[in-house]
Amino acid sequence: MKIVNEPEIKELDGMTVACVSFVGNYLGNVKVFGDLFSKLCGWAGSKQLM
């Protein structure tokens, strides 16, 4: 794997993406990240996207 030390700007083709949101303080609360990741993976898995 090549490690890139410099940022680069690329123009990409359009794509569909998914996200989950959280409103509140998550600083230092690792459970929030786990819950959001599980929610996203659960959704994607149920649609056979991963």
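The record above closes out task 2.4. Task 2.5 opens with a second protein, given below.
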Amino acid sequence: MKLEEKINKRIKEIEEDSRYQSGLEEPATIDINAPLAMIQLSLETELKTLKAVRAGLRKTAKQVASGYHRPVCPKCNRELHPETNGVGVLDLGGDGKPYELYDADLWKCPGCGIEVVGGFGQGPISVHYLADFEAQIKYYQKKNLLIKNTG
């Protein structure tokens, strides 16, 4: 399959994704005049993000349905509820520089409003030496869904 065919196929997949069909989110704008390698990188980054968000949504529902207990607020004695799926957590190294990026879930207490981030999955969605690392960080920043973990 030619690169151009792969790109067109990926664009179609993104357009058919339920997040975009529901109007919750707009797909990234792709500059069709950019070099093909840049377009491919942009599409691959978007695909990784979509997969991470989709996995996060399934994970939370699956865990609760299979008997995992929701976190409980010790102050209010109430179960926390999933507030936002697909929150980016950027782990900073000892030198304060970005090191790893995780996709996680934000939980909130309906009583006092305390928030906790959990559901990090099996590992990071990107790390500092990968080509898509900065683009992944920018994706979460653009959505105001990036939390920096200083350790």
